[in-house]
Amino acid sequence: MVLSQYITDVINKNRRIISNDVPLLDLIYDLNSEMIISDDELVKLRDKCDNNKQRAFEFIQLLKSRNDENFFQFCSILKEAQVQHVQNIGQKLENEAKATKICDDENLLRNLPIIPESDYITRNEFVNTICSELKRIHENSGHILVHGMAGSGKSVAVCQSVRRSIEADNYFKPHGCYWIKIGNISDEKLLSILKNLSVRLGIVWVQSPQTLDEISAKIDRFLQDNSEIARTLFIFDDIWNERHYDYVAFAKKSVATSRFNYARNKISHILIPTREQFTDDEAMALIAKRREYDCHQTFLNSDTVKNVIKSCAALPLAISIIAGLDLQSDEEWEEIRKRICSKDLMNDLPDYELNVFNTLDLSVSKLNDSEKSLFRLLGVFRAVEIPLASVICLWKIEITKGIELLKMLNRRSLLKYSGGKRRYVVLHDLMIQYLQQSTISNLSRQEYHKSLNKELIDGYFAGCGGNWSSYKDDGYFYQYLIYHVIQAEADDILHQVMTDFNWMMIKIRTDDTIYNLSQDVNNYIDYLRKGNKDWHEFNQLLDLLKQHEFSIDKYDMDVIQTLLWYGERDSMMRERAVQLARINTQTDDSVYWIMFLISGNTVTEYTYNASKRFGKNFRDDSISISNPNSGNWRIVGTENNGTTDCQIIVKDHQTSHIVYQMSPSYRYISSVEISADGCIIAFRYRDDKNNSVMITVSSNRCLVKLWRITDDREIKSENKLVSYNYKIESCLWIKCGSQILLWWRRYNFDKHRDNYKPLDVNNWINECNIEVWSLKAWHLLRSVTVPAYIGRTCNQYTATTNIEGGQPLVCVNSISNDAALMILAYKNIVGLVNLERKDHDPEICRKGFAKNFRLTLDLSHSSSVANITISDDQQFVAINCVKSSDENIYLMTIRNNQIRSYMKINMAHAKSLTFMPDTAVLFVYESSSENCLYEYNLQDDNLRWQNFQNNKAIQDYLTQEESQRVETQILDVNYAYINGVPFVAQLIENDTTCKLEIREYEAKLCVRKFYHSLENGYYRCFLYNDFRSAVVVRFYRQNLGLNMVIAEIIDFCSEKDRTEIKKLLDHNISLRGRIFDLKTRYRGRDNTLIFVVSTKGDGGGLGMIIITINLETEEKMIYQEESRYRSMDLLYYDDDYLVTCQTERKERMKDELDHEHSIKCYKFGDGKSQIQLLERCSFDSQHGLIYKLTLPTNLSHYKLDIKYSSLNLDTGKLLEEWGEKDGNLLMTHAGSLWKYQYICLLEKGEHLAILNGWGRVKMKRYKNNIVKFDFDTSIFNCENLWSDKFLIVLEDNSLHIHIYEAQTLQLCRVLPLSHLDMWYMKWNCQQSSFIVSNMNRDRVLRALAVAQFRSFTALLQI
Question: What DSSP state is assigned to residue 44?
Answer without folding.
Answer: H
